[in-house]
Amino acid sequence: MELIEGLKTRRTIRSFNDKEIDIKVVEKIIDATRFQPTWKNTQIVRFYFTNDNKKINEISENIGHDWNKNIIKNAKGVMVLAYKTNISGYEKDKTPSTTKGSHFESFDTGVMAEGFVLSCFNYGIGTVIMGIFDENRLKKVIGVKDDEAIACVIPMGYYDELPSPPKKKEVSELLNIVK
How many domains does the chain have? Predict the structure, then answer.
């Protein structure tokens, strides 16, 4: 798939078919995703994946949000992106490198999440990035380490068709030329 085509055609998928997700495909997706840039190459993002139905149901029951719960129950895999805290945006002595402080953790994780969902799309796997969840409950269910925080939950699965694209703003509404 061409990169620009993927950027323009990838959609959020909330309904998945019954095809199982092979761990070998997930490994290929992470292999591609790991090349995304991070603050000073800190590589703070950690990936927690399951395709085990029992664990997917446990995640669903502990997500803490009814709408997300139902989407997760239908998924054939769930990826949780966590990140090591207090590294991105900081110097080695832990002083902030920027006025953004810990916000760079979210930026790095967002870049990695977008690389991940585009890599999934390349393999025909649909995804939805979720930001509403009960972090404390999920950390226990998934086994996220104490020095990590959860950035997002990404249910995954193969889809039968892509939804139509929503209306997007024109370039003229988004781009500001500065002289």
Answer: 1
The burial class, CB within 10 Å (0-12 / 13-18 / 19+), for 45 is buried
Q: What's the full length of the chain, in residues? A: 179
* Domain ranges, residue 86: 3-174
pLDDT in tens, 124-145: 999 999 999 999 999 999 999 9
**Pairwise CA distance, residues 142 & 49, whole Å:** 9
Percentage of the chain modeled with pLDDT above 70: 99
Give the Cα separation of 91 and 59 in Å (integer): 35
Give a yes or no: residue 179 inside a domain. Answer: no
- Packing angle, helices 53-62 and 66-74, rounded to 10: 170
Reference 48, options 121, 159, 119, 140; nearest CA is 140
Q: What is the pTM of this model?
A: 0.94
Element (H, E) at 155: strand 148-158
Say how far apart CA 72 and CA 48 lie, in whole Å: 15
Query: Helical H runs in 123-168?
Result: 135-142
